[in-house]
Amino acid sequence: MEKIEHSHEQARGLKLHVAQIGSGTKVVVFLHGFTEIWYSWRHQMVAVADAGYRAISLDFRGYGLSEHPLELARATFNDFVDEVVALFDSFGISKAHLVSNDFGAFVATMVGVLHPERVSTIISLGVPFLLPSFSPLQTQLPLVPSGFYLLRWLVPGRAEADFGRFDTKTVVRKIYTMFYRSEPPVAASDNQEIMDLVDSFTPLPPWMSEEDIAEYGSLYEKSTFSTALQAPYRIVMLSCGLDDGKIKAPGLLIMGERLFYEIPRAKRLH
């Protein structure tokens, strides 16, 4: 990955860490989720650059090597959107292809709705094209078990206490090994926390190495999980100022054939 260049760019008052490779006129911007950072896209960035594109991946505010916002509790998804567009302007990018995963898909969707002239195509991994606070999504959450990881992480302080029992690398290891399973145990019982659902010594997925865990662990140790738990989990139900929106750019949604946990009636959202 030595060809990947790194810099810090000013975006709406924060210095964001940006990684990029390639010099093509067409640009692909990768938007990570949780527990991810720019590093999550490193292989795709090289492949895209080899295909003649300019590939860019950033650490969102408060993640990895990017600065933390001063007023974390007031963050919304609109902040992420504004910072992505600010990076476009900083790099002189008029239009780009967006590739997103996890909560990065909310950001990509909002950029597509609010700034259609800046988006060539949108690819979303694992998350349908939804807006934060989308009402059908809100109606589904009461139907899932109270120990579901998403509901646990919505509660201020609970995940922090859960994660705080382990070092950062162990937390990252547990999350990746838990969700890699064919039957992920994503709902805890009343006397369990989410980190109790997987053993610290569970083998890593074949596509992840100890070096990867060390990289994620060191960067999350620097940034802490404070921003990661606030955004996206505790802002996903906040209004983004859009009741509805249509993406004009061509889109591609990539989902597994089998959902790891089927939220009742969730397929209607696809």
From TrEMBL:
Keywords: Hydrolase. Gene3D superfamilies: alpha/beta hydrolase (3.40.50.1820). It comes from the Eukaryota. Belongs to the AB hydrolase superfamily. Epoxide hydrolase family. The lineage of its organism: Eukaryota, Viridiplantae, Streptophyta, Embryophyta, Tracheophyta. This is Detected protein of confused Function. Residues 27-168 form the AB hydrolase-1 domain. GO terms for molecular function: hydrolase activity. SUPFAM superfamilies: alpha/beta-Hydrolases. It holds the Pfam family Abhydrolase_1. The keyword Lipoprotein does not apply. The keyword Hydrolase applies. PANTHER family: EPOXIDE HYDROLASE (PTHR43329).
